[in-house]
Amino acid sequence: MRKKTKTVHIGNIAVGGDNPVVVQSMTVNPPSKLEQTVSEINDIESSGCELIRIAVPTMKDASYLSMLKKRVHLPIVADIHFDWRIAIAALDNGADEIRINPGNFPADKLHRIVKLAKEKNIPIRIGVNSGSLEKGALLSPLALAESALRWAKQLENLKFSNIKISAKSSDAKMTIETYRLLSERCNYPLHLGVTEAGTAATGSARSAIALGTLLSEGIGDTIRVSLTGNDRTDEVAVCYEILRSVGVRNFGVKLVSCPTCGRIQVNLVKLATSVQSIVKKIKKPITVSIMGCAVNALGEAKGADIAIAGGVGYALIIRDGKIIDNVKEENLLVRFTEELKKMELL
Ligand code: SF4
Questions:
Q1: Is 26:236 a contact under the CB 8 Å cutoff?
Q2: Does ligand 1 have an atom closer than 6 angstroms to the CB of 271?
Q3: Parallel, antiparallel, or unpaired: how do β-strands 51-55 and 22-26 relate?
Q4: Is 139 in the pocket of ligand 1 (CB under 6 A)?
Q5: pLDDT at 145 (0 to 100)
Q6: What does DSSP assign to residue 16?
Q7: Considering Cα of 7, then 205, then 169, then 113, what sign does the dihedral take?
Q8: In Å, how far are 109, 271, 294 from 128, measured between CA atoms?
Q9: 312 CA to centre of ligand 1 in angstroms
Q10: Atom of ligand 1 nearest to the CA of 261
């Protein structure tokens, strides 16, 4: 059963409580690269992202946030380190949430950031991670959890409780143990993630184990899968795959495709990659199956809304378990797309 946490509001998104687990990503570009950032955020949004974090490394970047806000729909989490004035400027320029590691700011300046966030009713995400623990602290789940909770206590002492917490590690097991402790010891919404998780293969695997385990235990209110790469829509796709796999949220296309083997007669890798890009923006929960030959294709197709079964030069298109067409391989993607349009999915 999902742990019921406090609800915080980030722009028009509610996080925690009974609200669905929110999918987050982070831009590659800073706000001052305005055009690239607008186009990047809009692209990430179209893949299903609901909350976007953006690094705000300079005062100039903070000043661009107000222009950025006018051009995008997603609530913006401004990520700020070391310079308290940037945090103040981000709040003044319309950030919907700020993510800080409070230990990076002098205590008297932290007080000013918190005061302004309170006046503006903007939540603060306390973001602790394994690379930035207090000096002298030995890295452990307990040290990470206690560091985050200590900062939460300091903000509470300043009469501020509009808080979300993350305490990330690059190790899946440590992430699981840290968040279990946090969930036991506080009621704040938790943002889950494995930091510096690696490239698509390692990052997806590590995140799936850590986030999947925690979500299965009812822990977690927002998630991000961090992958080394420039296309953040991949992170969003992995987030939804994890949520779907543990039965927490069913959103978008579940793609079933075979690994190929010696029986293969079509270029399935190319076909699956093309289909994945065609169905990427579908938000309705459907299953699409792409199989290389007839061995398992008809069985898999029974559980799919639409399926492709490869043959020799031709492929079958199957809808709801019934064969509806036998198409030449070179016409397959056009015919498949036409069928998705008939299903009002595109
Ligand atoms: S569906 Fe056919 S081609 Fe694909 S792995 Fe199974 S047997 Fe091989």
A1: no
A2: no
A3: parallel
A4: no
A5: 96
A6: S
A7: negative
A8: 18, 42, 51
A9: 13
A10: 8
Residue type, 52: I
Q: Fill in the amino acid letter for 270.
A: K
Ligand 1: residue of 263, 267, 268, 308 to mutate (most ligand atoms within 8 A of CB) is 263
Residue nearest to atom 7 of ligand 1 (CA): 295
How large is the angle between the packed helices 141-157 and 172-185, nearest 10 degrees?
40
Binning the chain into helix, strand and coil, the percentages to the nearest 5 are 45, 20, 35
- Ligand 1 close to Cβ of residue 154 (< 6 A): no
Q: Is the CB of 291 under 6 A from ligand 1?
A: yes
Q: Which two tokens stand for residue 127?
A: 């973001």
- Report how far residue 296's alpha carbon sits from residue 255's, in angstroms, rounded to the nearest whole number: 15
User: Can you name the residues that pair with 288 across neighbouring β-strands?
Assistant: 255, 306
Nearest CA to 53 out of 296, 239, 208, 222 is that of 222
Residue with tokens 């623990």: 133
Instruction: Report whether residue 260 contacts ligand 1, using a CB cutoff of 6 Å.
Output: yes
Quickly tell me which residue has 């990427």 as its tokens. Answer: 280
The Cα-based distances of 28 to 45, 110, 191 in angstroms read 14, 27, 20
Q: What is the mean pLDDT of each run of 10 residues along the chain (346 residues)?
A: 95 97 97 98 96 98 98 98 96 98 88 97 94 77 95 96 96 96 98 91 96 98 95 94 96 93 89 92 94 82 91 91 93 96 94
Q: Residue whose CA is closest, atom 2 of ligand 1?
A: 293
Q: Identify the three-state secondary structure at position 253.
A: strand
Burial readout 219-250 (b: 16 or more C-beta within 10 A, e: otherwise):
bbbbbbbbbeeeebbbbbbbbbbbbbebebbe
Quick check: 23 and 243 in contact, CB under 8 A?
Answer: yes
Q: pTM here? A: 0.93
pLDDT of residue 196: 84
